[in-house]
Amino acid sequence: MNENVIKRNALLAERTIAGLQSRNMSGYYAGDKEEALRIALGLIPEESSVTMGGCMSAREIGLVDALKSGNYDFIDRDAYNDKRAAMLKAYDADVFLTSANAMTDDGVMINIDGNANRVSAIAQGPKKVIFIVGMNKVCPDTDTAMKRARNVAAPINAQRFGLKTPCSKTGKCFDCKSPDTICCQFLITRFSRHKDRIHVILVGEDLGF
Question: In 3D, which of 1, 199, 2, 15 has the Cα closest to residue 100?
């Protein structure tokens, strides 16, 4: 990666982490995926029950493989025939892994969901929530972050799930009411009333969508 990009990411992460701290959330900066994995595992005690939504970023840094092979109770919803049962286990888990569809450089996170299992677990339930967020998702303000979530993250997710939405065909949000829409619930996380519950690992690489 270009050294100027590396420097820019580190400086922007400093501002974002200060914003998270002002919102009663913990922030960390990892220069690459390997460092992000070390930080994440340092936040997850062995024997913890751990689950996640559809978090591509956790997979990309190798965290899911590490949890499956380590001394953790990893609740893998893909291994469940009853997906609802797997999703419900998330609310009593020790740790929930997720990412943000977008976030502001002062620590506000935006997430869009279809089934609401992910945004509801972020809002309430698991004892600890760990976000893995590539610096490609950091935006200058809430409006820009919302536009990114709707016009970048949502169309790509609709495409990878093979959904028949306008955005999957055009790459642009149409504020649709398609039966396949994944833009059913919008969650803006701007503050945590519970100290040490929300942890955000910013990664100086492009992760997720």
Answer: 199
